[in-house]
Amino acid sequence: MELIYKGKTKNVFKLEDGHYLLQFKDDVTGENGVFDPGANSVGLTIDGAGLAGLKLTSFFYSKLNEQGIPTHYVDANFSDATMTVKPATVFGKGLEVICRFKAVGSFLRRYGAYVQEGQELDSFVEVTIKDDERLDPPISADALHMLSILSLEEYAILKERTIEISKFVAGELEKKGLTLYDIKLEFGRDAKTNEILLIDEISGGNMRAYKGNTYIEPLELEKIILAD
Amino acid sequence: MELIYKGKTKNVFKLEDGHYLLQFKDDVTGENGVFDPGANSVGLTIDGAGLAGLKLTSFFYSKLNEQGIPTHYVDANFSDATMTVKPATVFGKGLEVICRFKAVGSFLRRYGAYVQEGQELDSFVEVTIKDDERLDPPISADALHMLSILSLEEYAILKERTIEISKFVAGELEKKGLTLYDIKLEFGRDAKTNEILLIDEISGGNMRAYKGNTYIEPLELEKIILAD
């Protein structure tokens, strides 16, 4: 199999049957040796971080597939820390779709004149473009449409799916006594059918979860969710 | 009459008949003594800047009123550099509505991965919240709605009016051989009828205009538009 992309936290291989293999690495994003899922550079290596991310992704994506919410997930191999996925193309140069249940992070930094920290938000969806150099700026539905990144019809589907998936994840966290504050998803188009698919991963680094008023670190979160 | 607000470039007085009086000052926004309409602080004083802004605003708003596009403009007194306006309330703590015909400025800084400098944009509308401390962040229709700043119905009207007004201004500039790149408008609700009104001003400092490839400074722009 052929290595086609070396990412910050994953390597991507092309398989002979047309599928792709994502290899989850123990490298995590952060700055100055501190794990920060929102950071744009690899900050440190944590033994087992890749496998923990893969296990959580496999947990969520297999359940989503069962519920008829299309994802790129085919299966996972925990001994190699790899996940087999369907081929998909990203929108433009890649988008991140955020669903917010509580006002924290960049939302609070932008709209702090109108919201209190931690104020409840009604499954608020926003999209940012993946662009490290320009600090991943938010982009509106109209701008995505005008720049031919996404049609308005596709935006509507993306928004609906994001709310559906995020509420599902929030529900799984709730079963373990945790509250989901926000979550970041990625979508693409199925390379064969053009259908909108949930791609990438859902691991601890994709969300902010709290137990009461305490922020739960990504690796701790993965342990809690996957505990019997 | 009572002074009720001292702004960066205008003072506001309440009149006894319920109208308000805006007094245009010669202070203009900028940094380090350079006129910059996008700046958040007053940078310098230019003799005649207030009157020039008032004359251009009066020119555009009286024509808009004639066309049935509601504005807060009642009349102007050039000898005092004042404008009488209807009472209106702003959305939240104030919004700026931008219409873009060419990709320059903050749009280019955010979406430079997808557009070339100066590329044509299809009357693209975006809203920013007035918040000097948070650098006037852009905000989506959904966020405006969720934060109870504007309903989705009002957003639709705002967007339609913005395009209509901006195209009208672009047409007036075109008569003088100028091209409008982008323009910033402000809207509010009529204090009596709740109708959406164009408020504030449209002067050289609210727009970027070019003659060929040359940027036209706000005061020069006012001279060109108002020349017979």
TrEMBL record, chains A, B:
GO molecular function term, any single one: ATP binding
Catalytic activity from the UniProt record: 5-amino-1-(5-phospho-D-ribosyl)imidazole-4-carboxylate + L-aspartate + ATP = (2S)-2-[5-amino-1-(5-phospho-beta-D-ribosyl)imidazole-4-carboxamido]succinate + ADP + phosphate + 2 H(+)
GO biological process, one term: 'de novo' IMP biosynthetic process
Keyword Ligase attached: yes
Keywords annotated in UniProt: ATP-binding, Ligase, Nucleotide-binding, Purine biosynthesis
Signal peptide (from-to): none
UniProt pathway annotation: Purine metabolism; IMP biosynthesis via de novo pathway; 5-amino-1-(5-phospho-D-ribosyl)imidazole-4-carboxamide from 5-amino-1-(5-phospho-D-ribosyl)imidazole-4-carboxylate: step 1/2
Pfam families: SAICAR_synt
Domain SAICAR synthetase/ADE2 N-terminal: start-end pairs: 4-215
E.C. number(s) listed in UniProt: 6.3.2.6
Protein name: phosphoribosylaminoimidazolesuccinocarboxamide synthase
Source organism of the structure: Lysinibacillus odysseyi 34hs-1 = NBRC 100172
